[in-house]
Amino acid sequence: MPEKDLNKIDFYDDEKHFYEDFWKSRQYEHLSEISAIDKLLTGKRFKIAMDFGGGYGRLSEALLKYSDKVILVDPSTKQLDIARKKFIHSQKIDYVLLDRKDYIPAPDNSLDLILMVRVSHHVIDPTQLFKDIYRALQPGGFAIIEVASNAHFINRMKRLAKLKSPSKTPIRVGSVANGITDDTPFVNHNPNTIKNQLIEAGFKYEKKLSVSNLRSSFLKKHLKAQSLAKVEKHLQAPLATISFGPSIFILVKK
Ligand SMILES: C[S@@+](CC[C@H](N)C(=O)[O-])C[C@H]1O[C@@H](n2cnc3c(N)ncnc32)[C@H](O)[C@@H]1O
């Protein structure tokens, strides 16, 4: 059996994997994430923002509303090529191919904002990455770190039924998730553990939001994504207090 390469990060180049397709049936989740970014960034303005692990730039457009320049970083050539086509008319996006793990390709104190959405589930131990995010941000700069949560409400209830509390350590989820291969790191984290790791890296905790709270196949089948997203907007802050949703957005400041 071939050995797993734990340093491999370009698995989104897999020819059988079409990340864009994953989003075709997830308009509600997409709108929920945009809404969270807006909630966390309204009133702020940045010179240089980085969309780290930004894939084909699904959220880079949302960042452009708040930033003069966006650096889209990803280890997948395929994702960056799709992004280049998508943003062919924009001069405000730079593209950087990431060639190693746990590293922000930018000089010390050079960035104003780093967005990292749906990447933490590919990083089993993010402590080194958080230190590097801290290094690359300028003092007063912000990071938004999205956590695919292993402690969302439904999971907590399931664990409670077995008299267990939520796992503090990452939990491996859906192995061949969305076409990516079996040895792809794919974990859910405990948002409290991630918050503590960010504080240990030097960050000040600012705020968190609970996102995609209404993710349910029943609701998605019977209601329009736009209608669900309207309700979602009002839930993100109150439900954050109990880390309700499957995805938690954490805003921290250097
Ligand atoms: C689920 S996609 C998310 C893309 C984008 N942030 C979004 O929300 O649409 C995960 C992305 O992270 C990239 N990635 C995987 N491992 C990574 C790592 N260790 N560091 C940075 N990016 C990574 C992948 O190439 C992929 O484009």
Word description of this protein:
This protein is an alpha/beta fold and about 250 residues long. The chain has one domain: 3-Layer(aba) Sandwich (Rossmann fold), CATH 3.40.50.150. It is about 35% helix and about 20% strand. It has helices at about 20, 25-40, 60-65, 75-85, 125-135, 155-160, 190-200, 215-220, 225-240; strands at about 45-50, 65-75, 95, 110-115, 135-150, 170, 185-190, 205-210, 245-254. It has a seven-stranded mixed sheet with strand order 3-2-1-4-5-9-8, with helices on both faces. A two-stranded antiparallel sheet has the order 6-7. Strand 1, helix 3 and strand 2 (about 65-75) form a beta-alpha-beta unit. Helix 2 (about 25-40) packs across helix 9. The radius of gyration is 18 Å and the shape is globular. The structure holds S-adenosylmethionine (SAM). The site of S-adenosylmethionine has 19 residues, from loops.
Figure out the total of helices: 9
Cα distance spanning the termini: 44 Å
Q: Overall pLDDT, averaged?
A: 90
Instruction: Evaluate the radius of gyration.
Output: 18 Å
Superfamily at the CATH H level?
Answer: Vaccinia Virus protein VP39
